Phytase-like domain-containing protein
Amino acid sequence: MHLPTSTTLAATLLAALTFAHSTQSLPTTHVRAPQCVGESFMSLLPGDFEPSDLAFDATSNNLYVVSDDGRLATFDHVVDDRMTPATVVQLGSPKDYDFEGATVVPHRPDFVYLSNEFPAAIVEYSKKEQKVTRTWTVQTYLDADLSAKKSNHKNAGIESLLYEPTSGTFYAGRQSDARVFVFAIDLDGTSATLSSTTATLVGKMDPPGPGKDLAAITLWRNNLWFLYDKSLALYPVTVQDAQIPADYKPTDVLDATQLTNTDIGALKFDTRGQEGIVFVEVPDTGAKYVFVAVDPPRGKGYEKDLRRYTVDAFFECFSKNGAPADPIFFVQA
């Protein structure tokens, strides 16, 4: 009989311990880690393009991306692997516009609505005519409750824009203090009380969050989502809680600071410069994605980007509640 040497015993013991450790380290709940970095599509935009906001048109399945130098980019095939370089148009000269917000109006699919930051204005762009067709200047409303010292501050204009179809109003967010101004416009020229040439302020709201540095507002599944850059956070509020009451005066402010949808909770991120966000859902295919526009401050170590996440990965990565198996608590608006 040959007794094992001390070297053989040590090797056998080491192998057993290594196997046990590797077995215990195997993941028990996930086959693979969520894709928390997302897929980058920045290479499909011009190199000097600075993504400022996003909008998705479910009718045409087009994704719109704006840059702060007056350019509008359009993507097709955003929910499959056939995305090709964006079609980019320049509205006016690069100094004419500083676009920071973009939205679509479901019953007007031939138009994209953009927000010029300063002087604050809502701009209607016709896809068919490929030109700006109407502009509603609203800077005086955004200046009204600012001190004289800040009245012309670069962050006193519109940083984000959203059309909310339930109320038929535009939500325009101010970056400096995160205040949201809600405007009604007679886009179709059929209203007996509203103007097609003037934006009517119907009220204001203060959303949940840090109360400053609001970057974007988007709508998905009966929630308005408020994105903040420096605080790296996203807060959902139900459409019902974000509605301006009918008896409000234009000077009244809806206090929604404590109205975060607790069924979802706030989402937290690790990337500076997130300037735009949009949820993309195509019922025919079941595809659900989140696109995020990243335009970070220079010299901070971050890069411009246009990222795409699956909805499940997005919530798995950034929500403390994890990804809902099926977001039943989202009721389609």
Q: What stands out?
A: Confidence is low (pLDDT under 50) at residues 6-33, 146-152, 327-333. The first strand starts at residue 39 and ends at 40. The radius of gyration is 24 Å. The first helix runs from residue 6 to 25.
